[in-house]
Design a protein that fits this description.
Structural class: alpha+beta
Strand order of the largest sheet: 11-10-7-2-1-15-16-17
Radius of gyration: 18 Å
Number of helices: 7
Length: 268
């Protein structure tokens, strides 16, 4: 998945610029956030960046967290339990035929599978969400035993409700992802209104379907087996951003250890 600039998209992101200026500014932003710059080697940039993401994911998987605790000055106080034998994914992977590739460009995330019934607390979005042609802003959710039981939004609350009511699984989480606040997309201060970019600007969680690849043996499991391990199922998968400069994340391992994962928005 990659982003290609268009005049229409550029004018939404930069409404006060001319079509030509907006297009050029969006094009420059896409190159920069994709680590393609004139004064460096993009392939080497990606080799280093990809290696860092893979190593973060390896360490996170090895730590075998039972749950994560998110807090921020926005008011977020959220505990996310992870499924047993979860796998963190970051950086590239190989196709079944052995070709190495990065599935998303740009990418800054390491992500895994939350337990469907193991999410509790309140979370506040740190950025607006573009969904179904509308921009939802100033929104929050309260979770109990995995399910959104209360919510609110300053803008487009009905659109948010339509997402939550989409199907049985759309009030539960299918993904939790860690993204440092000090990263190229975040540092642009641009709201791209395109999830590929905006989700890679901040730690995020997703309502809806879980990725089977985030649990050991998941791709070979039946729907019933995935349900048994705690994977959520839905026809939607919608990421929204919760990380910012005051985000702290603590991990609690299966054997009782407490590990600082993020401090002040970045890797601890």
């Amino acid at each position: 998945v990659i982003g290609i600039p268009s005049v229409e998209w550029a004018k939404v992101v930069f409404p006060n610029l001319s079509e030509e200026e907006a297009f050029e500014k969006l094009e420059d932003a896409i190159f920069m956030t994709s680590r393609v710059t004139e004064d460096s080697d993009p392939l080497e940039n990606w080799r280093i960046h990809d290696g860092n993401l893979v190593e973060h994911a390896r360490k996170l998987t090895e730590l075998n967290f039972k749950q994560l605790h998110f807090t921020s000055e926005l008011g977020t106080d959220l505990t996310v339990e992870l499924v047993d034998n979860h796998v963190w994914i970051g950086g590239g992977d190989k196709t079944p035929k052995g070709v190495y590739f990065d599935p998303n460009i740009p990418t800054e995330e390491c992500f895994t599978m939350p337990k469907k019934t193991g999410v509790n607390g309140i979370v506040y979005a740190s950025k607006p969400l573009s969904y179904s042609g509308k921009v939802i802003d100033g929104f929050w959710f309260r979770f109990e035993n995995g399910k959104v039981v209360d919510f609110g939004a300053k803008q487009e609350e009905e659109t948010l409700k339509s997402l939550l009511d989409f199907d049985e699984g759309s009030r539960y989480l299918g993904e939790v992802a860690l993204v440092p606040y000090d990263s190229p997309i975040s540092n642009t201060k641009i709201l791209f209104l395109e999830t590929l970019f905006d989700e890679n600007a901040a730690c995020h969680i997703a309502l809806g379907k879980a990725y089977p690849t985030c649990v050991q043996g998941g791709p070979e499991m039946t729907d019933e087996q995935l349900e048994e391990v705690g994977a959520n199922d839905s026809l939607v998968h919608v990421d929204f951003m919760i990380g910012e400069a005051t985000t702290n994340i603590t991990g609690y391992t299966a054997d009782g250890k407490e590990v600082a994962i993020f401090k002040a928005g970045n890797w601890a």
